[in-house]
Specification:
mainly alpha, single chain, disordered N terminus
Length: 446
């Protein structure tokens, strides 16, 4: 009787992080946190371009890109930590949680510090390669040095955000994004009242990230009461963290190549002048990924928790995630398909629309498929099999490149869009089959 009671208590403890009402509420918060920066940028970017000038704003954009891609430098350990913490919460195995987190943060610090030192050392060469105008070189150098200092903090934020995601603390995460948004978009606009210096704007952006790092530490200590009292290291969790994180890194490196390599093929085979007819609809339509990304940020830790705790609930959560991603995306996708030509003509011009509307329609279909595929990829990684998604990315890349080169010369831009769509469909079917096998294995043998 006591054993049964303990088992029920364990299951209830794990499932409190995966309640449907909690996941729905957190999905809304996650979506707001993802969408708010885009809305603010829509209004502030034109002001910054006018205030700082095209040259300075171009340099600032590069800084944003480095900040945006800083997650690559964590070697996938942030995602690995989220998976490990969620699994422990699902199994109600939290005695050594602080030790696991501190061990992960220590490991994650190493590539962050290494990249910081490398960027610091090579900043003068990078600035020379960027062909920055002489009058902006000092500001750019100072900005790059500041950015180098901030890299470890940026990586810590990614990891600690993952910890709070495991605890489904998306309200806290959303609040944490407010100072980042303020420093990233609003502060540079306000600074224009006093100065146009780029390095001062970057200083504020970096300061915002550093303060946010300390805020995350404080927030985690509120969720894990003994967090600062158990600063110990657990060596046995290093290998699984590095193994999971290593394959995530493979996906993180090959993912952008798979996403953007078609642009380079278009430029090489056709011409650079027609790239805009492809990239413009692509960049606009794929903004729809904000919704499934926001939802899966919430669902990933819940899937991890349930797949190692309650396999039937994991299966139900998997199918519900597919359903909600489809329902959220289908209407905007249909609007893109139906009004592609008229919308592009109104926005850019009739000639541009004539050359790109079919690309827009095909990409809209692929965007829907990709949004749904994100669920199966998350489940595979939630099960601990990040090696599967890593291998799939590696295998896809050369095949996709070969097919693109053949198709583009015969079918042009619509052909490129079609192959991108087909690639997403094939990988979506494969990952769905693998997900079902994982779920069935877990249900039968878990």
């Amino acid at each position: 009787m006591s054993t049964d009671t303990n088992q029920i208590s364990k299951e209830n403890q794990g499932s409190k992080y995966t309640k449907k009402s909690l996941l729905l509420k957190n999905s809304v918060w996650s979506l707001l946190a993802q969408g708010l920066p885009l809305i603010i940028a829509l209004f502030t970017v034109p002001v910054m371009i006018k205030g700082y000038g095209v040259e300075r704003f171009g340099i600032l954009s590069i800084m944003w890109i480095i900040i945006g891609y800083s997650s690559v430098f964590d070697l996938g350990l942030g995602r690995a930590l989220t998976q490990m913490v969620s699994r422990k919460l699902g199994n109600n195995d939290t005695d050594d949680l602080s030790q696991v987190i501190w061990t992960a943060l220590a490991i994650i610090s190493m590539p962050g510090i290494a990249m910081s030192l490398i960027l610091f050392a090579f900043t003068p060469y990078i600035v020379s390669l960027l062909k920055v105008p002489e009058m902006y070189k000092t500001e750019t150098l100072n900005s790059m040095y500041l950015l180098a200092i901030s890299l470890p903090f940026l990586i810590w934020i990614i990891s600690m955000k993952g910890i709070l995601e495991s605890y489904q603390k998306f309200v806290i995460i959303s609040i944490m994004r407010l100072p980042v948004i303020l420093c990233n978009y609003l502060a540079p606009v306000l600074l224009l009242t006093f100065t146009q210096r780029l390095d001062i704007a970057v200083f504020v952006i970096v300061a915002g990230r550093i303060l946010t790092t300390f805020a995350y530490f404080y927030a985690i200590s509120g969720v894990i009461p003994d967090f600062f009292n158990k600063i110990k290291f657990k060596t046995e969790c290093i290998k699984p963290l590095l193994n999971f994180g290593g394959w995530i890194t493979v996906s993180n490196v090959t993912g952008p190549l798979l996403l953007y390599i078609d642009r380079f093929i278009i430029a090489f085979v056709l011409s650079a002048t027609v790239v805009a007819y492809y990239t413009t609809p692509f960049d606009i339509v794929t903004k729809l990924w904000i919704a499934p990304t926001a939802i899966m940020n919430v669902i990933f830790p819940a899937l991890t928790s349930e797949i190692h705790n309650d396999k039937k609930r994991a299966k139900k959560l998997y199918y519900e995630s597919i359903k909600y991603n489809f329902l959220i995306m289908i209407l905007p996708v249909l609007i893109c398909i139906i009004f592609a030509k008229s919308a592009l003509a109104l926005w850019i011009g009739a000639d541009f629309a004539e050359k790109s509307y079919l690309v827009c329609q095909i990409i809209a279909v692929g965007t829907l498929i990709n949004g749904i595929k994100h669920v199966s990829i998350s489940l595979i990684q939630a099960s601990g099999r990040s090696d599967i998604t890593g291998w799939m990315s590696l295998v896809q890349l050369p095949i996709y490149l070969f097919v693109l080169i053949i198709v583009i010369s015969k079918f042009g831009l619509p052909g490129v869009a079609f192959i991108w769509c087909v690639r997403n469909l094939i990988t979506g079917i494969v990952t769905h089959i693998i997900s079902l096998k994982i779920l069935d294995d877990k249900v039968q043998h878990g």
